[in-house]
Every structure is written in structure tokens, then in C-alpha cells.
Amino acid sequence: MDQASASAYQRLTVAEPVRAVSPPAGALRPDKSALDQHLHTLDKARLEQSVCLRR
User: Fold this and answer.
1) Is 32 helix (H, G, I), strand (E, B) or coil?
2) What pLDDT was estimated at residue 17?
3) DSSP class of residue 35?
4) What backbone phi and psi angles, to 5 degrees, belong to 20?
5) How far apart, in whole angstroms, are the C-alpha atoms of residue 26 and residue 10?
6) pTM exceeds 0.90, yes or no
7) β-bridge mates for residue 44, sequence order
């Protein structure tokens, strides 16, 4: 996922039942790390792929 997709489908997101642990520093590319950090600030950040495909 990228930031544009996360923003475009934000209204379809749901709460994550179990919060994911952030990956170790340097494990993600800078753009993915920024997205990961952003998603961890949201109450609803889980986006099911099947929801996107139906739209």
C-alpha cells in the first residue's frame, strides 16, 4: 500500500483487532516507514483488499 491508496480508501478502514508491532529501524524503505508510522497513529487503519476490489 502507499500513502495515496491509504488516503483514498480511509473511509473504508476498520479497527485493527490486534495492533501490529512496528518493524525494526531500517527494515522498511523511507516511504513505507513513513506510511507505517502514519497508520500506527490512526484508530482505524486496516483495509481489506477485497473491499478495494469491489469498489
Assistant:
1) helix
2) 87
3) H
4) -75, 150
5) 26
6) no
7) 15
Q: Provide the grid cell at 41.
A: 497513529
Q: For 14-51, b where at least 16 C-beta lie within 10 A, e where not — what string?
A: eeeeeeeeeeeeeeeeeeeeebbeebeeeeebebeeee
Residue labelled with grid coordinates 502507499: 2
Per-residue model confidence (pLDDT) at position 47: 84
Tell me how many degrees the CA angle 14-52-19 measures, rounded to the nearest 5: 30
User: pLDDT tens, 1-55?
Assistant: 888 988 998 998 999 888 888 899 999 999 999 999 999 999 998 887 765 555 5
Residue in this structure with the C-alpha cell 479497527, named with its chain if needed: 15
| Collapsed DSSP state (helix, strand, coil) of residue 36 | helix
Grid coordinates belonging to 48? 481489506
